[in-house]
Structure formats: structure tokens, C-alpha cells
Amino acid sequence: MTSCNSRDQSLAPAQDKGQHHQPPFPAGASEAEIRPYYRAASTCIYHDDFVTTTCIEKNSIDLIVTSPPYNLDTKYHSYNDGLSYERYLAFTRQWLARCLKLSKDDGRFCLNIPLDKNKGGQQSICADLTTLAKQVGWQYQSTIIWNEQNISRRTAWGSWLRASAPYVIAPVEVILVLYKKRWKKTSGSGESDIAREEFIAWTNGVWTFGGESGKRVGHPAPYPVELPRRCIKLFTFVGDTVLDPFLGSGSTLIACLETHRKGIGVEIDRGYCEIARQRLLTGGRNAERSHRSSP
Fold first, then answer.
1. Is the dihedral of CA 178, 98, 192, 276 positive or negative?
2. Phi, psi at residue 182, to the nearest 5°?
3. C-alpha to C-alpha distance for 157 and 2, rounded to whole angstroms
4. Over the stretch 252-278, which tens digit does the pLDDT of each residue have?
5. Domains of the chain by range and CATH?
6. Are 139 and 181 a contacting pair, CB within 8 Å?
7. How confident is the model at residue 220 (pLDDT cuts 50, 70, 90)?
8. What torsion, rounded to 10 degrees, do the Cα atoms 131, 114, 274, 212 define?
């Protein structure tokens, strides 16, 4: 199983084998190999390398929502974000292919990435990663523009007030919407929980809301819970399984708790696993109480 069906409400990382519920392990894998860092209600955190992990069963994920490293030399604890662009694209191809194997045939993928970048040289990240995704087998559906309203952070202008070499930078990010084999979703509960107003607003492909503070959550590049929350409500049914292969500070799993979805997060850095766990215990506690009291 890949869903986290245990009702264990322990406030500490999973440590002993004496669980009373079936753990979310794929067939043939031992608990020692893939024991969750944290498991509670319908969420799991795995401290592991997503490219090589065995903690998730193939063809089992309804939706992947993630924001991978952007290769902007962000100072992560356990990952080098300053690769050559060729190595970065090779790494990206690996995890995109891994995501494809784990998704159901009607699985979707919401990939939050920059439109482009100029740090270390101009690169068309969105175009390049879209091409890679299609090469490994993902099908393209659409692109959502996320207007993060961060134009005030801009410091690179190129040639100031001169035509010699100005930089044109769009202060937005994108969310690529991909799918595996068919766009029409036939698996799952069939129960949608999106309101009419939300559906009308979110099917307009320009989303405007602010980002998350890295200082507030203790992670150098977090994204706000609002981003996965919209993707989850728009593209999955209640009870579906959502995966974030670069969990970071845990925003995707908080959104899963708030929307009655099962959530799996994989994170290579133990410190970030702990940040995600703490956020789930505090920000997600009310959501879990709500779930238990729901009819």
C-alpha cells in the first residue's frame, strides 16, 4: 500500500515496529528499508532520496504536486543547487521519469517552476523542463501562471536605462499541468469538494496570491499552502493520494490534511523532514480534528 492509512497519532517520528495498522509499504519491501520518518492519520513523511527510494508503489499516485530545486544556488542543507545546467537537466530527467512510474494511468502532475532564470546565465527553465517531461512520457495539458507579486525583490536590471543589455524578467512562476496517459479521471471516489466560485476562478490560468516566508518556516525556498491546496481541489477527488517528491517544509501535506486527501512526502534532508513534521503537528492539527468529527 502507498496510502498512509494508519491512525497512529504519535507526536514523534515513527521509531518502533510495533504498529497496529498496516504500514504504507510496497509489496516486497521491508519495514526496516522504508520506515516513515513520520506517520499520522493519512500523511507520511519519508526521509529518503526520491530518485532511489522504494517507499512508493508504482502506478499508485493520483496527483503529484511539487516545486523542485531551481538550480539558483539556493543554500539547501543536503543538496547542491549550483549544478551545471547540463547536470541539472540530467537530474531533472531522472526524477521526472520516476514520477511517471509512480503515477496512475489517469494521474496528474502539477509542477511549480520558474518561467526562466538569469542567475548563472539566461536559461528557459519552463520550456526546457516541459520538453524533458514530454520526452520521458508525460502528456502536456496546460500552464498556470502564478503571479507571486514579488516584483519588489528584483535587483538585476542589466544595462540600466540603456539599450545595450537590459534584462527583461517576468515576476511570475508557472505551474505545468501534465498527465500520464489520459486526462479524464476515472479512478478514485468521484467526490469533488471544490466550490463553484473556486472552480470558476481557478480554471482561469492566472493565479494571484503571495508566496511563503522562508524565514517564517525555516526553509530557504518554501511555497505557500495555497498553491497545493488549489491544485488538489481542482485536480483530485476526496480520498485520493497526493505525492510531493521534494517535500521541503511540508506545505503539500498540510494542504492534504485540509482537503481530506492522503499525502506522501519524500525529503532528502532530515532537518527539513522535522520542519515538515512540526508544521503538520501545529498547522494541521485542527484539520485532523475536523476530519475525525466529519460525518
1. negative
2. -140, 140
3. 47
4. 999 999 999 999 999 999 999 999 999
5. 31-293 (3.40.50.150)
6. yes
7. low
8. -150
